[in-house]
């Protein structure tokens, strides 16, 4: 666990690590495979990466990205889609090759989803796995959209969203009834295979679930507790989110 004075400092530190990873790989002529997250939490990290691109020449030409999740069903162009989120917060502002961007496809028909999920896993594996996965945490203890009940070895799949998660998303959708009931998410097992995992959490609102995730009994009831089983996970917190530890 690393605690920073505030979320701005923490975000700059995480972005700095991502930039160092990209530059180190590039120096060796290798590509960087990043696992990315949405939500309010990583916005400061993306803003700092955009600044590093514009002001310090950080290039994303050799970066391949896989996003954790997407609502289902979801049109890519919708305001609430994670495609829109990633374009607005990162991809439209950097020099990433759009063919290197992977986000679960919320437009598929139900019978197309299983093959898509399998292919998503295979694509990550074929690239040698994720170098770094960044995560936020939902108040149910979900990582990605792995809600309570998710298995530790779960793969990319269609899931049903928890009621609390849909409540938390209702503001973005102008009412809970507009929030999709399902999502496509990387599994806990997919996340675990990343060579490095950074879970970020800011504010007092996240303090109770951070305490459970870091100190609680390992249980599928709080999927983030599975992270305790990994030796390559770091929780990056601001003082408020760490205040119950
Ligand atoms: C959503 C995302 C998660 C994210 C969580 C927390 O459920 N699917 O990946 O970690 O929200 O969101 P926020 O960072 O806005 O608190």
TrEMBL record:
<protein>
    <recommendedName>
        <fullName>Glucosamine-6-phosphate deaminase</fullName>
    </recommendedName>
</protein>
<feature type="domain" description="Glucosamine/galactosamine-6-phosphate isomerase">
    <location>
        <begin position="7"/>
        <end position="228"/>
    </location>
</feature>
């Amino acid at each position: 666990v690393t605690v920073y004075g505030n979320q701005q400092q923490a975000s700059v530190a995480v972005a700095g690590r991502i930039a160092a990873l990209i530059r180190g790989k590039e120096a060796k002529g290798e590509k960087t495979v990043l696992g990315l997250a949405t939500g309010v939490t990583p916005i400061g990290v993306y803003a700092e990466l955009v600044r590093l691109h514009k002001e310090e020449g950080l290039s994303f030409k050799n970066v391949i990205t896989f996003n954790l999740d997407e609502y289902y069903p979801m049109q890519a162009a919708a305001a609430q889609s994670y495609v829109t989120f990633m374009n607005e917060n990162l991809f439209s502002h950097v020099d990433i090759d759009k063919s290197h961007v992977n986000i679960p496809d919320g437009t598929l028909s139900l019978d197309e989803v299983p093959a898509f999920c399998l292919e998503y896993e295979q694509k990550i594996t074929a690239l040698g796995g994720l170098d770094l996965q960044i995560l936020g945490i939902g108040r149910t203890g979900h990582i990605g959209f792995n809600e309570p009940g998710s298995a530790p070895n779960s793969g990319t799949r269609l899931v049903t969203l928890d009621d609390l998660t849909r409540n938390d998303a209702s503001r973005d959708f102008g009412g809970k009834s507009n929030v999709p009931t399902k999502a496509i998410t990387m599994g806990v097992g997919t996340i675990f295979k990343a060579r490095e995992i950074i879970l970020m959490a800011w504010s007092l609102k996240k303090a109770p679930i951070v305490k459970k995730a870091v100190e609680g009994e390992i249980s599928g009831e709080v999927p983030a507790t599975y992270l305790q089983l990994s030796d390559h996970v770091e929780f990056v917190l601001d003082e408020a989110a760490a205040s119950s530890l």
